[in-house]
Amino acid sequence: MNRKIRVLIAKPGLDGHDRGALVISQALRDHGMEVIYTGLRQSPDQIAQAAIQEDVDIVGLSSLSGAHRSLFPKIVDTLKKYNAADIPVFGGGVIPPEDIPYLEEKGIKKIFTPGSSTDEVAKYIRRLVDPDKSESVKPPEKIAHIGIAVHHIEQALPFYTDTLGLSLKHVEEVQSEGVKVAFLPIGETQIELLEPLNENSPIYKFIEKKGEGIHHIAFEVSDIKDRLKNYREDGVPLLNEEPKKGAHNADVAFLHPKASHGVLYELCQHGGEKS
Q: pLDDT at residue 271 above 90?
């Protein structure tokens, strides 16, 4: 795409506040996009006709009035009525999380909650409008394991093997992390018991501070190096900017907990980097 991306920002219904729409409009202009703002109190028909007449690539809807469940789908339907279903629609504003699945089922491509940054909105638009130049965000393949910090694996095992009926698959030491690891498969994932080997172990420090319990959740990925590169470029805080070796000789890296509201996530790739 050689021309600028054209975005229509609209406020459907009787919503009388447009600060949020003006903020996102300016932010998208700062990202090099052409933005058409239709103003307040626009009907679905007015918004759809403006999108077609302005030949926009995407429509963004902002709502603070609570009428999003009825108005957002009506705009999608009106675009279809005018044979313009190829124009994608995204939304934002004060929208309860429980309404998001409903709106996406009705054809809204994406809902941005108040915590979303304008940079994320701009990146999403580029990925959607020009996928050849922007890599789409692929979700992790599965939960590889759930890491649980314990004082002693031998003392913790009876609950998992006797009470829960899980089987111990493998135990190994990862000297670089100062940790002893026991793996217990469950479905497509595993429970990973983590015992510190010394006082310098991150697990020892975790237990000293928070006690035994869930330490991290690991996602299985097949593109760990590319994923970390994209996260760095997007400003996602990382504990490891490059993969390192973990248990089972897997390539692993941790995201900083402040990136995910206090949860420590690990990326895990088994079998080495895939080309």
A: no
> Checking DSSP bridges between strand 6-10 and strand 34-37, what pairing results, if any?
parallel
pLDDT of residue 2: 65
Model confidence at 77: pLDDT above 60: yes
**CA distances from residue 251 to 98, 143, 183 in whole angstroms, order as listed:** 36, 15, 17
Structure tokens at 155: 């003392």
Give the pairing of strands 170-174 and 179-186. Answer: antiparallel
CA torsion through residues 65, 67, 73, 75, sign: negative
Q: What is the pTM of this model?
A: 0.70
Residue 72's pLDDT band, with cuts at 50, 70 and 90, is very high
Sheet of strand 244-245, all strands in order from the earlier edge strand to the far edge: 170-174, 179-186, 189-196, 142-149, 213-220, 265-269, 251-254, 244-245
Pair 11, 18: CB distance under 8 Å: yes
Task: Write phi, then psi, for 210 (nearest 5 degrees).
Answer: -120, -10
118-129 and 19-30 helices cross at what angle (nearest 10)?
A: 60
3-state secondary structure of 196: strand
Phi/psi of residue 196, nearest 5 degrees:
-70, 140
